[in-house]
Amino acid sequence: MRDRSDLSCLDQSQRHAIHLLNRPSERVLPHAAAIQKAGDSLISLLPDEGHGIRNTTKHVLEDLAPALNHQATSPHYYGFVTGGITPAARVAEVVVSTYDQNVLVHLPEATIATTVEDRALGLLLQLFDFKLAEWPGCTFTTGATSSNVMGLACGREYIIDEAIRKKGKHTASQSLGTVGEMGLLAACRQADITDIQVLTTLPHSSLKKASCIVGLGRSCFRQVSRVHTDLEFDLDLVEKSLQQPHTASIVVISCAEVNTGLFATHSREDVRALRALCDKYGAWLHVDAAFGLFARVLENSDEFSYVRGGAEGLELADSIGLAQHIFQNSNAAYLNSGSPGPGHVESPLNVGLENSRRFRALPVYATLMSYGRGGYRDMLHRQIQFARRIARYFSQHPDFDLLPQAMNDAGAIDHLTYIIVLFRAKDEDLNSKLVDRINGTSKMYVSGTSWDGTPACRIAAANWQIDPERDSATVQSVIEGCFRNGSMHGHDVPYYGCCK
């Protein structure tokens, strides 16, 4: 399988990457012809002898690479809250692929990999201002869905075990981990539970997918939001729901809702109130914080007070899911294997879902070491300032609606906007084509969604390269240029940015 061509092909691929990074494409999306060519070039039959590494490298670099989008290299890719790999993480990724570690068991005499993962998780906890001793069950996952799977699975385990404990049905031979030992149906019967519910506000689709995976189903979700807002908790309704007989509950906080970037809680007091209800009724408190947790990196200032408040108090939760990470509070006692001493590193297979695990921690370790808290704070400043400029632009434009409507209230944009901007065209026909028209320019990319039953466009300012002034000018140019001769008026609407 190995021949003397492999190193030259590796060098060729690295030179291709360096050339791309030195001269990034002005296009965000590939040409349609490139996608067609790539599709036509794909093999459909497995070869008996193989085409060889040289031919394969040529195929990958010349046929397939030109058909890939530039979500990592362009600051103008605003879809799906994907921020692009940082330079330090990219360097580490080369090492990850070269050494190809399977990070499953802590073997300190054999590899540093698990120690690096443990240290990277510790650095993340410090970045988000959490106390390391209170979060012993941290691990890297494959993404937000896996993080939510773990959070709901641990919550399911806890609430059923808690119900059994309260009924005094634990036997001397039983240990914590009832569902894992008995199975979900048997454990629910012993706990006298006929229903498990997830109480939340505007759950992300990954949370519903996770609920299906852990056997709770999509129908388990209960909306417990206030009247006239789907984002904030109605505590009276939460408590009423928690009082349902023969019912176990998981409460989920959406920390920065995916379509708007708005928060379900606004202070430590808000989370403390939910914590008190969960403790009173034996419920589990999980936080879906895929990108909202980064608000804890911001300093306390008038400019970021709302955003920062949306992430305060989350240390009171039982579990927190963050993109490719899951944090479990010390309340999740069944995750701990005994009482570890100083310097103890838990084998990842005892904490996470996988046995075969990529060395995901190294790029995280490298990027945190390279940029530190200050670098991430600066990055977030730029993303927020860009989003607020864009929100102001759409709010003032005669052909657009900035969403939700509350964002148009006096002072709301510069107070509430995080890194998401949601908007739609007032003309219904134009609005139905808006995403395709914007993306068709290939100068920027937005994702389509819906709000109040109608199509909408979402800009997610997540790339580390964002420059508020430069990139907001690009957005305005694309919007005005695309539709100057179409249904829009083509007005030159001024920016009202928050940058100083």
Give me a quick take on this structure:
The protein has helices at residues 6-22, 32-41, 53-64, 87-99, 113-127, 144-166, 178-182, 184-191, 205-213, 235-242, 268-281, 305-309, 361-396, 413-416, 428-440, 468-483; strands spanning 139-140, 195-200, 221-223, 247-254, 284-288, 319-322, 325-328, 400-403, 420-425, 447-451, 454-460. It is α/β, with parallel strands linked by helices and 500 residues long. Helix 4 (87-99) packs antiparallel against helix 13 (361-396), helix 5 (113-127) packs parallel to helix 13 and helix 10 runs parallel beside helix 11.
Helicity level: 40-55%
Can you tell me the overall shape? globular
Mean pLDDT figure: 90
Number of helices: 16
Plain-language structure description:
The protein is of the alpha/beta class and 500 residues long. Helix content is 42%, strand content 11%. The chain has 16 helices and eleven strands. It has helices at residues 6-22, 32-41, 53-64, 87-99, 113-127, 144-166, 178-182, 184-191, 205-213, 235-242, 268-281, 305-309, 361-396, 413-416, 428-440, 468-483, and strands at 139-140, 195-200, 221-223, 247-254, 284-288, 319-322, 325-328, 400-403, 420-425, 447-451, 454-460. The strands form two sheets. A seven-stranded mixed sheet has the order 1-7-6-5-4-2-3, sandwiched between helices. A four-stranded antiparallel sheet has the order 8-9-11-10. The longest helix has 36 residues, at 361-396. The radius of gyration is 25 Å and the shape is globular. The relative contact order is 0.13.
